[in-house]
Structure formats: C-alpha cells, structure tokens
Amino acid sequence: MIENEIKRVYSKYETYAKVLNDKTLADIRLLRDTLETDIANAKKENRVLRIGVVGQIKRGKSSFLNSLLFDGKSVLPKAATPMTAALTNISYSKQPSATIEFYSKKEWHKVLEKAYEVEQEEKVYNDKLNEFRLSKESGRKLQKGVRPPKKPIYSEESKACFELYQMVLSSGLNVDEYLDTKYFVDGENSNEMLIADLTPFVGAQGKFAPIVKSSSLALNLSGLKDIEVVDTPGMNDPIVSRGRRTQEILGQCDVIFLLSYCGQFLDSQDMSLLAQSIPNKGIEEIILIGSLFDSALLDEYSNYDSIQQALPSLTASLSDQAQSEVNAVCRQDELNNGGQSHLMQTLQNALPPIFISSRCYDLARKGDDLSEEEQHTLNRMNQMFDGFTFTPQILEAVANFKKVHSKLHSVREKKDKIMSERLDNITKGAERDLLHKLTVIADDIANKRNNLEKGDLVEAQKKQEELAKRISAGKSQVSMVFDKYRVQIEKTLHKVEQGIKQDSLSVKRVNSHTGRREEAYTTSREVYDPELFSPSTWFSKKTVSSTSYRTVNYTYANVQDAVQKLEDFVVETSDRLYQSSAQAININQFREDIKQAVKSLFDFSDPDFDPEMILLPLSNSVDRITIPTISLDLDHHINSIRQQFSVNEVEGDEIEKLREEQVRVVGVLLTEITQEVNRCGSDMLGRISNEEQEFLPSLIGDLQSNVEQLSIDLENKEHALKEYSDIIEMIEEDKRKLSC
Predict the structure, then answer these.
(1) What pLDDT score was predicted for residue 143?
(2) pLDDT value at position 120?
(3) How far is CA 139 from the centre of its chain?
(4) Mean pLDDT, all residues of the chain
(5) Are 263 and 296 spatial neighbours (Cβ–Cβ below 8 Å)?
(6) Residue range 490-494: average pLDDT?
(7) Disulfide-capable partner of 492 in 31, 584, 609, 665 (CB 3.0 to 4.6 Å)?
C-alpha cells in the first residue's frame, strides 16, 4: 500500500536528515500526513461527491456559487477583505446548521508575531519620517545625500497578519475566549435565518471574521443532496496555517472548478494556484470556468458590429487565447520536468473553458428588482449596440450557466465512476509525487557526491570563490535584467496613469441638453359683473383669471448621466489597474531571463567547468523570487458618488453647481487613484530592489553551503562517499519499486 510505502521511505531517509534538503524531506512528511486522511476520506461509505471551487480574489467565486447553487440569491456573503476569506464547506441537511472553527492559540500566536514585527517597523519608519520632516520644516540644512527614509516592504503574510490584528483591535474582541474553540449554530428553521445568524462570523463587517479559520454550512437545498461544495479563499492565502487547511481539504475533493478571469485566462498566478493546490492529489476532473464574461464583452464590444457577431466571435477568441496560454504553460512545464506533468495533461483535457457571467445570470432572473449596481451594469450593456436591448432570454444566453449546469449534471452522472476510481487516482498521484521528490533528493546527493569525488576542500573553495567572483563581476549583467523589468513596471504604470487622467477629462464634462415641455401660465381680465335688481352694481367690474398652456424650450443637465459617468470611470479604472499591473511583469519570464544572465557568465563548453556547481544553486535562488501585483478596491468610491446627488435633473444655476461638483469628485478620485498607483508601484519596485539585493548573496550563499558541506564530508571522506552512494542506491531501488 502506498501509504505504508511513503511511511517507510520517510522513516528511512529521515535518518539521513543532516545531508538531505530540509524542504524535500518536509514535503515527504507532509505527503505522509495528508495521504492517510485523503485515503480514509475516499474509503468512506455513502460519501457524497466533493466539489472544490478555486480561483484568485476578485474572480467572482461567491457570485458563481450563488448562481450555481442558490439561483442567484446572495447566500454566500463576500468577505471584508481577502484576509478574512475563510474556507467554507457547504453540504445538505434537512435542518440548517453551521460550525465555525476559530484559529488555534498556536496559529494566532504566529499571526501576532508577524503583526508585531510590522507594527514595530512601522513605528521606526514613522519616527524617522517625522524627524526628516521636522528637519525640513525647521529650515535646518540637511546633509548632502540625506533622503527620506524608505518605507518598509513586507511579505504578503506579514501584511495579512497585520491587517487581521488591526481588525481585531478596532473591534475590541477578546480573542482568547474563542481560540481553540468551535461555534455551533443549529435549530434554525430556514437557510436565510442561518445565514443571518452567521453574519458576525463571515459577513463583510463581521466582528469575529478576522479569527475564523473555516466554516461548515449544512443547508436545506435539494441541489446539495448528493454533493458537498468546498469554497476556498482567494489566490495563495497569505495566512499559512489557513492555506494548509485549504490544501488538505482540496486534496479530498473529487472535482475542481477553477475560475479564471476570461480576459486574462490562466495567468501566472492562476497556474501558481493550481500548482500549489492540486498537484498529484489524484484529481482527474478539472472544469475550467472563464468568469466575468460581461466585463470582457464591455471591454471588447466596440470591435464588433452587433451582439449577434460579438458573442460567438468573442467566445472563439477567448477560447483560442486560453488554448494558447495552456500550450505555452505546458511547453514550459515539459522543458522544466523533462516531460509533461500529469497536472498539465489534466489541464489540456479540461479545454475549452466555459465562459460565464454570474451578473447576467442574476439580471435575467431578477426582472425589475435590481440593485443600483446591477441596474448600472444593465444600462451599460444596453448602450453597447444601437437599437439593441438585452432581454432576460439574451442575458441568460450570455450568462451561459446552462453549460455549467450541464457539466455539473454530467459530473453527477459519473459520480459512481469518479468515486470508484478516486482511491486509485490518489494512489497514483502520491506515487508520482514521491517519485518526483526522490528524484530531487537524488540530484542533490549526486551533486554532493560529485563534489566530494572530484577534489579536496582547497580546490572546492577555490572553485567556489572563482564562481562567486565571476558572479559578483557579472553583477551588472544580472542588474540589467532587474533594471529592464523595473523600467517595464514604471512604463506600464505611467502609461496606465496617463490613460486614466486622459479618460477623466471626458468624465469631468457635464453636458447640457435642450428639452421641450408644456408650461402652464395664467391670464387675467376685467369684466362687468352687474346684478339685475341692483342698479349700484350695473357699472361694476371683476377680475377673471384663466389658465392657458404653451410649449417652452429649456436647458437642463441629467444628474444620473453624470453619476453613471463617474461610476463607469471607477469600475473601468479598477479593471484597468489590475490588468496592467498583472501584465507589467511576467514572473516566469523574469526568472528565466535572470537564469540566462547568470548562465552567460560561464563557459559551459569548458571541460574544466562543472555546470552542476552553478545550475542547482541557481535554480534554488531563482525559484525564491516573487513579485506582487496591484489589486485595488475602489468599490467604496461608487457609494460615495451616489450620495453626492439626490435629483434626476437640474436647471439654471444648478447646472454649473453640478459641473463644479463633478470636477471636484473626479479630482478626489484622481488624487486617490494616483496615490494608490504610486504606492503599489513603489511596492512592486521595492520588491524588485529587495530581490536584486538578495539574489546574488543568496546564490553565493548556496554555493558556500555546498563548500561547507564538502568541508564536513572531507573530515571523513570514505564514510561520506559511502553514505551518498547508499542514499542514491536506495533511491534507485525505491524508484524501481514505485515504477513497477
């Protein structure tokens, strides 16, 4: 049995921990620990089909699930931030209930450790910044070259921990009361009542949301009777313990729905998510969903003459783009692994994607009962093509959920087959994973043995020093790569910033219109009003008034048009910034360019040069490089804009007031957007600078570690050589067993 084999392999290689790569050994231990759970879950009698839903943040996972399972009703609330987006299990129960799991004390302690580090660094930074500002304001002459202190750059995990810590502080929550506990909700009569009771734990403003690790909902929905759905947090959960829990649960899934924005289908971050979440877990059913199709349509409709042309053409174009992206990823995977991995083969089998719009699905079902945001989307769509209006039937066609429901139905039909094959797939996946890890160990040990066989410590130190010198001397070539991508980021962000400013000019303009309307006016005239038998009144008069109507022209400005322009500007700006920042740097290409720059420093044709001395440490150093992207949340601006005006039309002096207000609001938006772009751009550039500063020392450090290991080995060379040979022989034997 594979679980026993992995336990045996881990126990055997653990005795050689001093000479093995720590990470690889830890990976085998994790495989051992999770495999037992995965197999036990697969063997459960009468278990339901488990479906995992994964995707980056802002990819519409909650909306997708609400449309797929709850007929568009907002059953699953959106988290306040990606940091509070906990794992959610959804299953069937006649009596609705829920279980909320809080962090353990150990997990929260780690969150606080990271948060306190950020808090302390922020204090030091602010003290230095205040000192610098006071020096400038006092008129003191600053020493030449003295600049403002650099803002600290934090890891995603540190930023997330600090955010959770800040949220807890502002809520006044006594965390210790809840850590290491679970909260149960039962006895509810309806799904709606249950969800309402869960708002403090999973809602956007939920007091307890920052300390929730996961939640399980049992809902009275017939569509859930034979399935269980796992709604995962967004891309690469920065809270490590929560991310591990997500991976553990995903490993027990039978089917995966992967949501990716159809305008940037399967970008590098999506692929990173796939690689981290489901490799070698025996998951053979991956369903690719291109989300937010309405956004892609709004971006591209001007390229088509009609909706009849746009829908099939855009779908075909996006499908081709997806195929191209997958092909490129698979080619790179083949080069890296000496053959295409099983994950890539599964991905190829999942094409073409299903492109969907949860927003259009909601619009088709809600009729006139739309929120302001939904009405806004519908208005924008109805303005795309002259003389064309979206009906519920057409909206449903754009939503494309029939294909999703059909795919879900197909999966349900294959339930017995999928579940009967699940145990075998888990076993094969674990075997593939263990084979890969053994190969990594073998390469590392072979390199160490080779170093030990080839020469003495003095020679090794000499070679290491030569490599280090050559690397240091070639620092400029490596720096050129970093500079290239620095310039690329600056150019991309500058270009998008200029584009936003240009777009804002038209947003500032409030057009006046001429209208015609019926206007009532009153005329008066005097008439005699004598009384027949009263001579004194015979010459008296009275005033008679009458109402008449006339058509008049008037000038007005439409307030809602102005508000809609602002809303369009905010939505389009948010999309543009995300897309531009994501495209500013291709991390895989960035890593490859750095590799090539370092390789160019050496003559691989020189028979005296051992390429393994540099290639393995180089690969390790390059793999550590990560660069963030901008993810702006401008939704709060939309709400503030709507509150600016309360009437539909204004006239006279009010038109000028509206124009002034429009210019003011656009100015506020531009200021905040510019600040955010500068801040995010600074973060990206800062990260590149940090990576540049750490890359060569890290690479040289890895080379030095090899020499240090050699120094240890040379103290008892024969013993070390035998130990390395024994390990390689064991690996070959274990690989043969696994391959049989």
Answers:
(1) 56
(2) 92
(3) 46
(4) 78
(5) yes
(6) 81
(7) 584
State the pairing for strand pair 541-558/649-651: antiparallel
Report how far apart the first and last C-alpha atoms of the chain are (Å, whole number): 13
Q: Contact 341/333 with Cβ under 8 angstroms?
A: yes
Give a three-class secondary structure readout of 513-543: EEEEEEEEEEEEEEEECCECCEHHHCCCEEE
Q: Taking the alpha carbons of 440, 442, 444, 450 in that order, is the dihedral positive or negative?
A: negative
Parallel, antiparallel, or unpaired for β 227-231 and 87-92?
antiparallel
Helix or strand or coil: residue 87? strand
The CA-atom distances, in angstroms, between 154 and each of 87, 151, 238, 410, 685 are 24, 10, 12, 45, 13
Question: Model confidence over 246-268: pLDDT tens digits?
Answer: 777 777 788 889 888 887 777 66
Listed range (7-21, 227-241, 316-330) with the worst mean pLDDT: 227-241
Q: SS3 sequence, 254-299?
A: CEEEEEEEHHHCCCHHHHHHHHHHCCCCCCCEEEEEEECHHHHHHH
* Residue 636 burial (10 A CB sphere; 0-12, 13-18, 19+): exposed
H helices of 340-456, where? 342-350, 358-366, 372-382, 392-399, 401-413, 415-454
Is the predicted pLDDT of residue 165 greater than 60, yes or no? yes
* Under 8 Å between Cβ of 386 and 321: no
- Sorting pLDDT into bands at 50, 70 and 90, what band is 14? confident
Q: Is the pLDDT of residue 414 over 70?
A: yes
Burial status of residue 362 (CB atoms within 10 A of its CB: 0-12, 13-18, 19 or more): buried
CA distance 340 to 336: 9
Cis omega (within 30 of 0) for bond into 607: no
3-state SS track over 37-48: HHHHHHHCCCCC
Task: Name every residue whose Cβ is closer than 8 Å to that of residue 10 and which is 6 or more positions away in sequence.
Answer: 25, 28, 29, 32
Q: What does the pLDDT average to over 54-64?
A: 74
Sheet-wide strand order for 512-528: 512-528, 541-558, 649-651
Bridge partner residues of 183 (DSSP)? 100
DSSP notation for 615-670: HHHHHHHHHT----------HHHHHHHHTT---SEEETHHHHHHHHHHHHHHHHHH
546-562 in b/e burial notation, b at 16+ Cβ within 10 A? eeeeeeeeeebbbbeeb
> What are the structure tokens assigned to 386, written together?
């002259």
- The residue behind tokens 């009468």 is 46
- Supply the pLDDT for residue 78: 54
Most confident of 150-159, 413-422, 584-593, 639-648: 413-422
Segment 358-365 mean pLDDT: 88
Pairing relation of β-strands 255-261 and 227-231? unpaired
Cβ neighbours around 278 below 10 Å, total: 22
Question: What pLDDT is attached to residue 81?
Answer: 44
Question: How many residues make up the chain in this entry?
Answer: 740
| DSSP letters for 674-734 | HHHHHHHHHHHHHHHHHHHHHHHHHHHHHHHHHHHHHHHHHTTHHHHHHHHHHHHHHHHHH
CA-to-CA dists, residue 172 to 110, 165, 169, 175, 598, angstroms: 20, 11, 5, 9, 52
Q: What is the pTM of this model?
A: 0.65
Helix (H, G, I), strand (E, B) or coil at 551: strand
Name which residue leads in pLDDT, 487 or 249.
Answer: 487
Sequence-distant (≥ 6) Cβ neighbours of residue 30 within 8 angstroms? none
Which phi and psi (to 5°) does residue 263 adopt? -75, -20
Residue 436 has which token pair?
């890969």
Contact assessment for residue 430 and residue 6, using Cβ atoms and an 8 Å cutoff: yes
